[in-house]
């Protein structure tokens, strides 16, 4: 006789929990999650890292980016061993997160009802909802908890929609279907844990733009991702510009060091340790006569070097 009241109470508690946590956080909640960012933001609260920084980030190596983050105390921002559609593609962008969980009918009903109240599209599956919020420069990043068969979050139809909105691809800790069709979308790429011809079933979307786990990494909405065939690094928005400049200077120092070692001007021990004033002076002269275009402005470089004891 107590079963119905108990089930009713449990359902009520679940309803209140879902109503208290909408599908997406409020802009103020996103701002609280990303409080270190002091620049421009999107209406949903996510940091709007400039396109110019995203472009420069493409030239940064995974090791350089990871090294900067590790030195800042962020040691859980990398995930590797991905399957790529196009192996030599590099992608950077601002992260939109999505969380998927194994299907639970009562929870799914409440998620759909919550989405209906929020004005989300009711036709089709809820796996289209993250796509609806994408803007150009966004990367759709989803935790599909590693499910491959029946865990295909998109096929080529949704892939076309994603690229039309974001001009980017996807990163899924899960799988896709129609990989052959996806490969034909010019400019699109996908970092996944697998592919399968099955369609999505027995799994459901739970949230958009809340923190998620991607393998070894914790990912927040508004993070900036650097994705290469060597792995993916999720960078807190407030660290991106410093990471790019630091990595660019490191690359210049490496280029200078390699050149001087080939010339036999210095020994490996001299280059691999703290530089002497003479080597530092030589580096600055080398930079001033750099034959190509520097990745940063001369002012950025000068200001950066003033604060470093090179």
UniProtKB/TrEMBL annotation:
Residues 1-20 form the signal peptide. InterPro entries: RraA/RraA-like (IPR005493), RraA/RraA-like_sf (IPR036704). Keywords: Magnesium, Metal-binding, Signal. Mg(2+) binds at residue 178. GO terms for molecular function: metal ion binding. Substrate binds at residues 155-158, 177. Its cofactor is Mg(2+). This is RraA family protein. It comes from Dyadobacter helix.
């Amino acid at each position: 006789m107590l079963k119905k009241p108990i089930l009713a109470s449990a359902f009520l508690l679940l309803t209140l929990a879902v109503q208290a946590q909408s599908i997406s956080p409020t802009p103020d909640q996103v701002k609280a999650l990303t409080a270190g960012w002091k620049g421009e933001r999107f209406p949903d609260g996510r940091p709007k890292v400039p396109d110019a920084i995203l472009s420069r980030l493409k030239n940064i190596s995974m090791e350089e980016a990871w090294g900067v983050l590790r030195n800042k105390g962020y040691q859980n921002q990398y995930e590797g061993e991905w399957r790529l559609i196009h192996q030599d593609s590099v992608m950077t962008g601002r992260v939109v997160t999505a969380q998927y969980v194994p299907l639970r009918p009562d929870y799914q009903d409440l998620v759909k009802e919550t989405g209906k109240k929020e004005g989300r599209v009711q036709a089709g599956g809820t796996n289209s909802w993250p796509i609806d919020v994408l803007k150009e420069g966004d990367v759709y990043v989803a935790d599909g908890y590693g499910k491959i068969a029946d865990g295909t979050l998109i096929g080529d139809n949704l892939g076309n929609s994603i690229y039309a909105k974001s001009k980017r691809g996807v990163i899924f800790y899960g799988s896709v279907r129609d990989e052959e069709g996806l490969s034909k979308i010019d400019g699109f790429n996908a970092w996944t844990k697998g592919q399968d011809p099955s369609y999505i079933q027995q799994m459901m979307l739970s949230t958009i733009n809340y923190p998620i786990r991607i393998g070894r990494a914790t990912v927040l909405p508004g993070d900036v991702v650097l994705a290469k065939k060597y792995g993916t690094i999720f960078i807190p928005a407030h660290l991106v510009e410093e990471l790019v400049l630091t990595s660019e200077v490191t690359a210049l120092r490496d280029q200078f060091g390699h050149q001087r070692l080939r010339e036999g001007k210095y020994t490996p021990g001299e280059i691999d340790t703290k530089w002497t004033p003479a080597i530092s002076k030589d580096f600055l002269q080398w930079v001033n006569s750099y034959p190509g275009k520097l990745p940063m402005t001369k002012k950025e470089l000068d200001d950066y070097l003033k604060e470093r004891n090179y």
